[in-house]
Amino acid sequence: MPTLFTHPAVPLALRAGLGSDRLPARLLLVAIAGSMLPDVDVVGFRFGVAYGDLLGHRGLSHSLLVAACLAGLAALLAGRLGARRMLAFGVVFLATASHGLLDALTDGGLGVALLSPFDRARYFFPWRPIEVSPIGIAPFFSARSLAVLWSEVVWVWLPCVFAALLLRALIPRAPGRPPAALEST
Ligand SMILES: [Zn+2]
Predict the structure, then answer these.
(1) What is the C-alpha to C-alpha distance for residues 105 and 84, in angstroms, rounded to an integer?
(2) How far is the CA of 60 from the centre of ligand 1 (A)?
(3) Cis peptide before 117 (omega within 30 of 0)
(4) Rounded to the nearest whole angstrom, what is the distance from the C-alpha of residue 106 to the centroid of ligand 1?
(5) What pLDDT score does 144 carry?
(6) What does the DSSP 8-state code read for residue 61?
(7) Which of 63, 101, 114, 144 is the most exposed place for a label (fewest CB within 10 A)?
(8) Cα 174 to ligand 1 centre (Å)
(9) pTM of the shown model
């Protein structure tokens, strides 16, 4: 995986690109949680779940199906999140699905079960420029950590900044509320 605090780059870029009117803080928090959630599967190591199992690391929790389910839940709760239903679905789906897709760009571990549970094959992209991050906190503070972080800056954060700028340029700003004086006439 890229490091846990790099996965939120995708929802943060969506927020920067779409603006706080379309993507309010509550939806942003849910999307950030979605971008990190798939790695809860590392808990399975403590309980003897093998890496390659259905519930193993980069297994079902990293699938597009789980991303769609979480996005569906966000769409149902869109009113509470202060967003339009389709937007809540799209943002949470992109944020959560991006986790597995970014993992599939890393140069280590097993591939990602993107189509689980229908197809339990593990997938990688043919081009994998992101250095894989060690699992767990302790090994992360090692000589490799700078190389890992640098590859994430280059291959995740910079493209996300570019995508946010592109969104801002392409999507018109959400119309603001008219001044109170105009509202009352
Ligand atoms: Zn992961």
Answers:
(1) 31
(2) 11
(3) yes
(4) 10
(5) 76
(6) G
(7) 144
(8) 34
(9) 0.88
Q: Give the integer Cα–Cα distance in Å for 123 and 101.
A: 9
Read off the DSSP letter of residue 179.
Answer: P
| pLDDT of amino acid 173 | 73
DSSP 104-142: TTBSSSS-B-TTTTT----B--S---BPPPPSSSGGGSS
- The letter for the amino acid at 45 is F
Cβ–Cβ under 8 Å, residues 61 and 76:
no
Residue 65 structure tokens: 């199906």
Question: 107-118, pLDDT tens digit by residue?
Answer: 988 999 999 999
Tokens of 91: 């943002």
CA of 100 to the centre of ligand 1 (A): 6
d(C-alpha 40, C-alpha 59), whole Å: 11
Measured in Å, residue 185 CA sits from the centre of ligand 1 at: 54
Distance 170 CA to ligand 1 centre (A): 31
What separation in Å is there between the alpha carbon of 16 and the centre of ligand 1?
A: 24
Structural contact between residues 27 and 47, judged by C-beta atoms closer than 8 angstroms: no
